[in-house]
């Protein structure tokens, strides 16, 4: 994997990562809220034999650091478009998970020619139509004790059969983020509302969700499929929010076949 610096129109320097087939079709992987490209550790290599795999660090994560702004899923999608252009990629398949799925929605809506095929996992259309997490889940994620909060997050991502602990996961947040950066990411995800734009998505779309996801309840997958033309839905039994990693042996071949 090589890292490339791409400069956005406002001068913000974005860190992008490229691996896999140099001249293969491009696949853009989008991570969740408050996470960098490290979200895809151990998973991106399953696509590298077929694709030129592209990731980038959202503003406020990894190697993309600078002033904290009024970020949104649309602005992160604009950054994604800038990264693809900077790498000379005219269009790509896009696989977005959690907030990355929200960014992927905006990319497909705002930059339709850039998205060949679209995979949305454990994500939501946002806005007043979305089904939000319960008050109990919200309280667990707001626990002032860092250790308890991390353990609660781990339980929301993985089933009890998952043998790796909270400190082994790459999905539970970028620990280098400042509180201002983390809050800006939370606002970006919370304000997402793609409802009106979803019917205009042109790319063939696969929607994936775990049935036991309490972070982003699985009813949101049904909402996405009801709004995106000809979208396909696949639910994974017992999957929680990190189901795409825990059950990658089953889900990654499904994604590869779709792409």
**Unreliably modeled segments:** none
Helix percentage: 25-40%
Tally of helical runs: 8
CATH C-level category: Alpha Beta
Strand content is 15-25%
CATH superfamily: Alpha/Beta hydrolase fold, catalytic domain
What average pLDDT do the residues reach?
97
End-to-end C-alpha gap: 21 Å
**What topology, given as strand order, has the largest sheet?**
1-2-4-3-5-6-7-8
CATH architecture identity: 3-Layer(aba) Sandwich
Please tally the β strands and state the result: 8
Shape: globular
Q: Quaternary status of these chains? A: single chain
Observed structural traits:
31% helix; single chain; alpha/beta; 8-stranded mixed sheet; 259 residues; Rossmann fold
How are the SSEs ordered, and which strands pair?
Elements: E1 2-7, E2 13-20, E3 25-30, E4 51-56, H1 73-86, E5 92-97, H2 99-110, E6 115-121, H3 135-141, H4 146-157, H5 179-190, E7 205-210, H6 219-227, E8 232-236, H7 243-246, H8 248-258
Parallel strand pairs: 3-4, 3-5, 5-6, 6-7, 7-8
Antiparallel strand pairs: 1-2, 2-4
Helix pairs in contact: 1-2
Describe the structure.
This protein is of the alpha/beta class and 259 residues long. The chain has one domain (2-258): Alpha/Beta hydrolase fold, catalytic domain (Rossmann fold, 3-Layer(aba) Sandwich). 31% of the residues lie in helices and 19% in strands. The chain contains eight helices and eight strands; from the N terminus they run ββββαβαβαααβαβαα. The protein has helices at residues 73-86, 99-110, 135-141, 146-157, 179-190, 219-227, 243-246, 248-258; strands at 2-7, 13-20, 25-30, 51-56, 92-97, 115-121, 205-210, 232-236. An eight-stranded mixed sheet has the order 1-2-4-3-5-6-7-8. Helix 1 (73-86) crosses helix 2. The longest helix has 14 residues, at 73-86. The two termini are 21 Å apart. The model has no long low-confidence stretch (mean pLDDT 97).
């Amino acid at each position: 994997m090589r890292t490339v610096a791409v400069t956005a129109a406002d001068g913000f320097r974005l860190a992008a990562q490229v691996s896999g087939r140099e001249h293969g079709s491009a696949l853009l992987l989008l991570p969740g809220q408050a996470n960098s490209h490290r979200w895809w550790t151990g998973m991106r290599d399953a696509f590298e034999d077929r694709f030129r795999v592209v990731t980038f660090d959202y503003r406020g994560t990894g190697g993309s650091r600078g002033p904290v702004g009024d970020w949104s899923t649309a602005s992160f999608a604009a950054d994604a478009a800038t990264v693809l252009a900077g790498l000379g990629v005219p269009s790509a398949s896009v696989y977005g998970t959690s907030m990355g799925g929200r960014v992927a929605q905006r990319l497909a809506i705002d930059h339709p020619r850039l998205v060949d095929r679209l995979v949305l996992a454990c994500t939501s259309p946002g806005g007043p139509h979305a089904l939000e997490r319960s008050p109990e889940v919200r309280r667990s994620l707001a626990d002032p004790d860092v250790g308890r909060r991390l353990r609660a997050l781990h339980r929301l991502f993985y089933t009890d059969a998952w043998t790796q602990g909270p400190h082994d996961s790459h999905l539970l947040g970028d620990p280098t983020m400042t509180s201002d950066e983390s809050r800006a990411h939370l606002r970006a995800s919370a304000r997402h509302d793609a409802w009106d734009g979803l019917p205009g998505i042109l790319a063939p779309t696969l929607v994936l969700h775990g049935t036991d996801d309490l972070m982003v309840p699985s009813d949101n997958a049904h909402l996405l499929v009801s709004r995106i033309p000809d979208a396909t839905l696949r639910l994974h039994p017992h999957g929680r929010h990190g189901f795409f990693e825990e059950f990658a042996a089953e889900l990654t071949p499904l994604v590869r076949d779709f792409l």
